Amino acid sequence: MKKKKKCPNCGREFEGKRKYCCYGCSVTATVEANKQLKDKEGPIYEKWKTNLEASLNKLFRS
What we know:
The chain is mainly α. The protein has one domain (4-61). It contains 2 helices and 2 strands, in the order ββαα. A hairpin with a 6-residue loop joins β1 (4-6) and β2 (13-15). The longest helix has 19 residues, at 43-61. The termini are far apart. The mean pLDDT is 91.
């Protein structure tokens, strides 16, 4: 039997291998992340852009 966990976002109980939240909340988060990357604005996009610039700087410094 799989361990039951409680989703911190919606409070529903779920079981399985998911680490953080239930399936519905994870789909919602993924859709929001894709929207921010497509629109090129928002905190997820800014984090992605910062990490991309850092990795390119590290790559070309070597």
